[in-house]
């Protein structure tokens, strides 16, 4: 790399020399056997006096370049280079920043701060201030103060080693009087013991070991003025340490921007120091005037130092830094200049964060190399690698909010920001180009309403665009109507045909059922029923669940409750069959002899009661619950303005249907399940004989006579039915539900 400049200069001269380029073009591809051809002469076309010879062939140059390129490829890539995989930064949160040498430790003189060895004692004074004539002490203090204000130690004012990396800088001033060295005491001995205050200032107490007869005395008022000015140097030290540390890659873009903004203010501060130095050179400048000029700057630098110390101690980054700056800005409500200064710093520091925010809400893209933004992309695999029927859980888990990264002033709209970019990503995943309106720059202000409006506009655009995509291009309403045909029993003939054709297969144990046969029977039922006119009938699939209906409903009701973990356990111990229902066949009874048929009268009567109960329960759910709620759902969804309202309408429809169908009450659900179980057991008992029963087969039924078993089934069914009606009655009175009361009459 060190030789690269000379090599580029050589190439530049070659490109400028037309004759040389023509010579190289003629001889580049010819093998060079003669040693004289191995010398390339580079000369200026207008001046041939300066000629350089390089004993190297083009093949050697090419070989060396290939080696350099190969070595460069082995090194870590620059974080600002464009990677082949554009999503890699979002998928891998552990972004590796370049590791740069710690120049400030290796070469301390490069720092703008004082160069002091922390492990050593304070730097000894070059001389004692008390030994200087009183008339010259003020000018000496002025010169040393100007040095300290720029981060350079003076002869009579020296910085102390830091007590910690983020602690304020303290100083020690040379004594105001000189000791009588004739008594053999070592020089110098401080007159005052130094004590540091919390504000970075200093206090002093007389040293009892000072000699009794000093040689020269000094004006203590000059010393006190210097002590009042020194906190400015302490603030400068804190600020430049913050700037130098936070400029590192791993501290993030927000800290980078804040350090740069502080750097601009430090430049103005150094201009002030230069002006003070000019006044000193002109003569007639004193400490009182200096104190007068630095007071406004002292206030500003104290604010900068306080911000730097707060961020350093909190080890803040990204949104946390902006939250601290926002709190500082709000705390200076009574101080106009202080608030303006904090506002300037917050606006400057928020620029990179707001740029990430703008890309997210306007483009749906996250460009966050240092993990500072409130939205995190957790994509581990591409959408193309997922199965075709992947659920919406993909979108819920891919983009998540990191609460610790949310600035305080964006807390209220964090969820809106998340949904805005997520909607744009859904649109892009559907293969649609996003034509966003004119982007508005989002700038931090104390009045949050300004950028809230920009975020709301971006959200409305993304939501309406996605709504149009769902409603028009993807035909959402017709798809919902198609779903209603099957899951809400809207197509009765399809359900009848499918259940009749699959009854034999579904009566088997779940492990013996062939899914391919079910798919064939489903397609046959779809083609031979009224569902054949459904344009989306081919999207129907069959799936065998590893649990029964009761467990499924209990699992749904337990979501976000303490019982949710109980329904995540494996259910291998269940002996499931493919069909649970009260599907009743009366074909056997039609072939009975009249004498045998009379003995089935109680059974037929009970069967009719059961059938009447199930039919009325189904009628209530279909006609009095689902259909009215479906019409209300259609009325609401025709007036929606964004996707969120669609989701709310759909969720309300499902919740209302579940509640009115008595599926959200665990007690009612268990009772209804017991009622179904009683009907199912009765059906199994009635269908158990292989042929029309005779007197012998009836009397030899297990568990007593046939009539006794029927009476037992009747008692069980009646008991469960009465319990159900009692619970419905009490629930209807508590909720004032007229629909539930109608079940009693039915």
TrEMBL record:
Coiled-coil annotated spans: none
Cellular component terms (Gene Ontology): gamma-tubulin complex; microtubule; spindle pole
Record region (Disordered): 71-102
Keyword field contains Cytoplasm: yes
Molecular function per GO: gamma-tubulin binding; microtubule minus-end binding
All residue ranges annotated as the Gamma tubulin complex component protein N-terminal domain in the record: 142-473
InterPro entries registered for this protein in UniProt: GCP (IPR007259), GCP_C (IPR040457), GCP_C_sf (IPR042241), GCP_N (IPR041470)
Family: Belongs to the TUBGCP family.
Protein name: Gamma-tubulin complex component
């Amino acid at each position: 790399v060190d030789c690269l400049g000379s090599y580029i200069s050589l190439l530049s001269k070659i490109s400028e020399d037309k004759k040389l380029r023509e010579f190289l073009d003629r001889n580049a591809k010819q093998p060079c056997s003669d040693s004289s051809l191995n010398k390339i002469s580079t000369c200026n076309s207008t001046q041939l006096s300066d000629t350089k010879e390089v004993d190297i062939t083009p093949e050697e140059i090419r070989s060396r370049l290939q080696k350099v390129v190969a070595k460069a490829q082995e090194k870590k890539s620059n974080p600002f280079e464009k990677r082949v995989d554009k999503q890699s930064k979002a998928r891998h949160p552990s972004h590796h920043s370049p590791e740069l040498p710690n120049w400030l430790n290796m070469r301390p003189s490069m720092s703008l701060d004082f160069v002091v060895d922390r492990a050593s004692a304070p730097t000894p004074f070059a001389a004692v201030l008390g030994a200087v004539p009183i008339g010259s002490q003020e000018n000496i203090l002025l010169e040393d103060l100007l040095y300290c204000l720029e981060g350079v130690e003076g002869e009579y004012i020296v910085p102390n080693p830091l007590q910690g990396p983020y602690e304020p800088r303290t100083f020690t001033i040379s004594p105001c009087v000189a000791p009588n060295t004739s008594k053999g005491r070592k020089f110098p001995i401080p007159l005052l013991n130094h004590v540091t205050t919390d504000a970075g200032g200093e206090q002093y107490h007389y040293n009892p070991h000072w000699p009794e007869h000093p040689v020269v005395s000094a004006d203590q008022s000059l010393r006190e003025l210097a002590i009042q000015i020194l906190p400015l140097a302490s603030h400068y030290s804190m600020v430049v340490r913050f700037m130098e540390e936070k400029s590192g890659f791993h501290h993030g873009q927000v800290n980078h921007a804040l350090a740069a903004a502080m750097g601009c203010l430090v430049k103005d501060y150094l201009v002030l120091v230069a002006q003070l130095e000019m006044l000193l050179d002109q003569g007639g400048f004193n400490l009182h005037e200096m104190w007068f000029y630095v007071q406004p700057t002292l206030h500003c630098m104290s604010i900068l130092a306080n911000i730097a110390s707060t961020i350093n101690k909190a080890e803040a980054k990204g949104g946390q830094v902006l939250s601290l700056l926002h709190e500082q800005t709000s705390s200076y409500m009574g101080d106009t200049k202080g608030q303006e200064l904090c506002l300037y710093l917050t606006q400057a520091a928020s620029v990179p964060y707001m740029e990430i925010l703008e890309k997210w809400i306007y483009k749906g893209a996250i460009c966050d190399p240092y993990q500072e933004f409130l939205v995190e992309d957790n994509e581990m695999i591409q959408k193309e690698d997922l199965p075709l029927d992947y659920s919406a859980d993909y979108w819920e888990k891919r983009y998540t909010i990191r609460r610790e990264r949310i600035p305080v002033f964006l807390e209220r709209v964090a969820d809106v920001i998340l949904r805005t970019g997520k909607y744009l990503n859904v649109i892009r995943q559907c293969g649609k180009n996003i034509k966003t309106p004119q982007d508005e720059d989002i700038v931090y202000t104390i009045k949050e309403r300004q950028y809230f409006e920009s975020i709301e506009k971006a959200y409305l655009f993304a939501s309406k665009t996605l709504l149009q995509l769902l409603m028009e291009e993807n035909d959402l309403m017709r798809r919902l109507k198609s779903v209603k045909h099957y899951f809400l029993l809207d197509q009765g003939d399809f359900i009848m045909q499918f259940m009749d054709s699959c009854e034999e297969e579904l009566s088997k144990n779940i492990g013996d059922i062939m899914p391919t046969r079910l798919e064939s029977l489903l397609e046959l039922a779809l083609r031979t029923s009224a569902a054949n006119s459904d344009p989306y009938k081919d999207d129907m699939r069959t799936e065998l669940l590893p649990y029964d209906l009761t467990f499924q409903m209990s699992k749904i009701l337990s979501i976000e409750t303490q019982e949710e973990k109980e329904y995540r356990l494996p259910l291998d111990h269940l002996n499931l069959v493919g069909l649970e229902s009260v599907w009743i066949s009366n074909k056997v009874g039609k072939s009975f002899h009249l004498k045998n048929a009379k003995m089935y009268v109680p059974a037929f009567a009970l069967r009719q009661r059961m059938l009447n109960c199930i039919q009325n329960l189904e009628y209530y759910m279909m006609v009095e619950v689902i259909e009215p709620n479906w019409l209300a759902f259609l009325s609401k969804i025709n007036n929606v303005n964004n996707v969120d309202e669609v989701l709310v309408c759909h969720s309300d429809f499902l919740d209302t249907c579940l509640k009115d169908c008595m599926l959200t009450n665990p007690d009612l659900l268990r009772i209804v399940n017991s009622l179904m179980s009683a009907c199912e057991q009765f059906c199994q008992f009635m269908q158990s004989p292989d042929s029309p029963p005779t007197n012998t087969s009836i009397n030899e039924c297990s568990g007593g006579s046939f009539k006794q078993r029927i009476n037992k089934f009747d008692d069980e069914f009646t008991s469960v039915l009465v319990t159900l009606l009692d619970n419905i009655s009490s629930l209807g009175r508590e909720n004032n539900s007229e629909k539930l009361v109608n079940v009693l009459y039915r």
